[in-house]
Amino acid sequence: MRGLYSFPPTEESETLCDELASPKYDFNAQGGMVVESKKKMRARGVGSPNRADALVLSEYINSVAHRVWPTKKTYRSSRKYYTVSGEHAWMVT
Fold this sequence. Notes:
The protein has helices at residues 11-21, 38-44, 50-68, and strands spanning 25-27, 33-35, 84-85, 91-92.
């Protein structure tokens, strides 16, 4: 998995790469990927992948933002014409 991503060679990048590579994964009966829980990682002696969580969540928000906050749909404008009635023209019908 480590070869699937590339970051600039810094100490923070090494920490991020280690965190991204730390959880194990498997596949369920339907073929979906199941990522190891933090509880199981802790039992193995692996620390919480905080930087990796932040990166993954930021990418997740970008990938689902169109479903969470849909853009305004443009509808055909249905024009309504109003007439002003009354002596003082404050009521619109």
